[in-house]
Amino acid sequence: MSKSFKIFVGGTLCFRLFWNFEKQHSQKQCRLYLKHNQFTLARMATDLVAARMMVRNAAIAIDCDHPEVVSLCCMAKLMATDSSFDVSMHK
C-alpha cells in the first residue's frame, strides 16, 4: 500500500472514532478529546522528526570524517529506536 493510502485510511478511522464519540458525549468533551489527540500526535511527530534529524546529523558526520562519528551514530541509533518504539506503543 502507498503511504498516502495508509494516511487516508488512518484519517478515516480517526474520523469514525471521533464521530461515534461525539454521538455519545457532549460537545465540550469532544473538543477536549480532539485537542488531546492533536497534542499527542504533535508530540509523536516531534519525536520522529528529532530522531530523523539525529540520524541525518550522524550520516553527515560519517561523510565528513568527524572525530566523534561513533558516539554520534550511537546516539542517533538510540534516539531513533526509542522514539519509534514510543510512537508505536503510543506512550
Explain what this protein looks like in three dimensions.
By secondary structure, the chain is mainly alpha-helical. The protein has one domain. It is 87% helix and 0% strand. The chain contains three helices and no strands. Helix 2 packs antiparallel against helix 3. The longest helix is centred in the middle third of the chain and has 37 residues. The two termini are 26 Å apart.
Task: Kindly list the characteristics that best describe this protein.
3 helices, rod-shaped, 91 residues, single chain
Strand % is under 5%
Radius of gyration: 18 Å
Low-confidence stretches: none
Helix content: over 70%
Number of helices: 3
What's the overall geometry? rod-shaped
How would you spell out the order of helices and strands? HHH
Distance N to C terminus? 26 Å
Could you describe the largest sheet, including whether it forms a barrel? none
The number of domains is: 1
Derived structural class: mainly alpha
Oligomer: single chain
Please state the average pLDDT score. 78
Please report the total strand number as a whole number: 0
